[in-house]
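Worked example 2:
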Amino acid sequence: MSDTAASQKLPAGAGPNGWLAFAGILLFLNGMFSAMWGLAAITDSKVVTIGGGGDVTIWDFTLWGWAALVIGVLMAATGVGLFLGNTAARMAAVVFTVLHALSQFGSISAFPLWSILVVALDVVILYQLVARWQLEE
């Protein structure tokens, strides 16, 4: 194992409390929920339309479903890498978490409570990723 490969790995759990592993699990679950929502929106937009006249702010449910599916799959894959302790996955997780939180504003008019809940979960994940970030020596 070379020095570059060793420097790309973090210890499992990355700390005495395992907050990085917790963030990885949350990121995986959040990504899977987003991917399932996206798949439902792609296959039948009436499934994700709940009473009322709400609609997505940008595009339509099918196109928004594709965006949610792609972001969700990327988040889930990054969550697995994060759980395994990959440093590159930690950087990618920050990017995908911010993108996911911003993407919720497109559907906030159709699903206000769900969007706020997902943004809150993204903030928790983001906090766990960056608050205890220690540079390797």
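The chain has a mean pLDDT of 78. The CA atoms of residues 68 and 103 lie 8 Å apart.
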